[in-house]
Amino acid sequence: MIPKLQKIFWALFLLSLPVTSFPYFPSVMGGSALVRPLALYPLAGLLVLMLISKSYAHALPRTLLPFFAFVLVALLSSVFALTRGVDSAFEFSVGDRVLRNLITLGMGAAFYLVSALTPNTIEDLHSTLRWLYAGFSVALLWGSLQTVYVIKLIPAYFDILKKIQRHISISKLFPKRITGMAYEPSWFAEQIVFLLMPWLFAAVLSDYTVFRWRWRRVTLEALLLCWAAIVLMFTYSRTGLAALVLLLFLAFLLRPRQSKSKTPTVSPREIPKAQSFSLAALLIVVLLGIVFIAGGQNKYFARLWSYWTDEESTGTYVQYIAFSQRFTYWETAYQVYEDHPVLGVGLGNYVFYFEDALPDRPLHPTPEMLYKLVPEEGRIRVVTVKNFLIRIFTETGLLGTAAFLSFIVAVLGCALYMWFSPQAEQQYWGRAGLLGLSVFGIVAFSVDSFAIPNMWVIFGLITASAHLVKRDPVEPSGRCV
Fold first, then answer.
1. How many CA atoms lie within 13 A of 13 on its CB side?
2. CA angle (41 as vertex; 444, 31 as ends), nearest 5
3. How would residue 126 be classed by pLDDT, with cut points 50, 70 and 90?
4. pLDDT digits (tens, 9 = 90+) for 188-228
C-alpha cells in the first residue's frame, strides 16, 4: 500500500513542479511569499510516507554527508546571528528573517532528499522522467497559448487567460512576454533550461528515450525539446537564452562515445563528430537569428544589442541593460563577508548590513538601488544578493561555502562517474547531470532562493541515478534504443 501511495505522490510532485507561486497557500506555509511551489503539498505526503517506510534506514548516498554539513553550518550561522544585537530600522526583525530563511532552507532540503531517495530502481528513474515531461507538457501548452497575445495582442483573449492565470499564480500576465505557470517570465525560462532541457538534450544526443514510441531518430524527447526551445524564445529571458546557448555548445563537447559495454542490449547510435559540431553550430546560428528577429519586438530584450544604435542611450553598457546593480549587490556582499568571514551574517540577514556596506559611489545611475533604500509606507525593503553562491559566501561564511562547494563537487563526482561508465544507460544519466550542473552555473547568477525546487530536484536526481547504477549496474533492455 505504501509503495503505491509513494508512486502517486511522486507523480503529483513531478506534475506540479512548473507551478512556483500557487495562490492558495496558508500563511503557515509561506502564504505571503513570492515563492509558493505547488509541489509542497505532495512533498509533505512523500515525507510522511518516507518516515513510515523508514527509507532513511537503508543505505544512503554519501552525497548527503556534505549536504547535511552545509545545513548544519547554515543553522549555526543563523542562530549565532541572533546574538549580534543588530538594530533594525525595517518592518521586520533579525529573528523574523532567520526564521523565514531557515524555513526556506528546510523546504530546499526536503526537495533534495525526496528527489534523491524516492526512486528505488532504474525503472523508477524512467518513470520519473515520464512524469516530469508530462508536467512540463502542460506548462508548455499553457505557455504556447500565451504566445498568441505576444505575437498579436487580442484584448478579449488576453483577459480570458488573465482570469485563468489568477488560479495558477499570484502574478499577472505580461502582454509582451510569457510566464507559463511560474511567477514571472525569467522563472519560466529557468525552469525550461534547468529542470527540463538537460534530460532532453542528453536524450537527443544519446538517441535515448524512456518511451516505447519512436520513428527512426525522432523520439518524444526530441519533439519536446523543439517545443520547449520555441516556447523559451517568447519568455525573452536573457538568462534562459544564455543557458540555451551553453547547452547547445556542450552538446558538441559531451557527444556520445563509442560504447564498450558487453551487456546484451542495443546501445545508442554514435553521432559523428563533424555531424554533431555542424548541427550545434547551425542550431546556434538559427537560434541567434530567431532571437534577433523576435527580440526586436521587445524593447527590454533588444537592449542587448541596441546600445550602440540607440541615440538616447546613456551610461555604460551594463547600466543600459539594467545589470549594473547586480555588480553593486555582489560588491556589497563581499564587504559584508570581509567583516564576518567565518560564519557570515546568518541566512537572510544581508539586508541589515546592506546600506552600511554599500560602495562609496553615486547611486543615481542605478534607480533600483535608490528604490530599495528609500523608505516608503507599504514597501517591504528586502534586498537580496541576486547570486546564489555569493549569498552562501556572505551569509554562511567560509565554513558554509566550503560545505556547499563540497556538496556540489560530490554531485559533480556522481555525474562524472556515470558519464565515464562504459554502459550507455549510465552515460545518459551522467551526460544529463553534467548539462544540469552547467546550467546551474548560469542560473546561480540570477536566483538566490532556497525554496525554488529546480536545482534541488536536479541535484537529487543526479544523486539518485548514481546511487542506483552503482547498486544495480546492469542496463535494463529496451530503454537505450
1. 26
2. 70
3. very high
4. 999 999 999 999 999 998 888 999 888 877 899 999 999 99
- Tell me the C-alpha distance between 56 and 61, whole Å: 10
SS3 387: coil
What lies within 8 Å, CB to CB, of 447 at 6+ separation is 190, 388, 454, 455
Q: Which grid cell is 144?
A: 504556447
Q: How many CB atoms lie within 10 A of CB 329?
A: 24
- Rounded mean pLDDT, 169-187: 91
CB within 8 A of 243, min separation 6: which ones?
189, 190, 193, 194, 197, 439, 442, 443
Report d(CA 42, CA 24) in Å as an integer.
Answer: 14
Indicate the SS3 state at residue 369: helix
User: pLDDT digit string (tens) for 345-388?
Assistant: 999 888 888 888 887 766 666 666 666 666 665 555 677 888 89
pLDDT computed for residue 314 by the predictor: 67
- Exposure string of 246-271, with b = 16+ CB inside 10 Å and e = fewer, is bbbebbbebbbeebebebebebbeeb
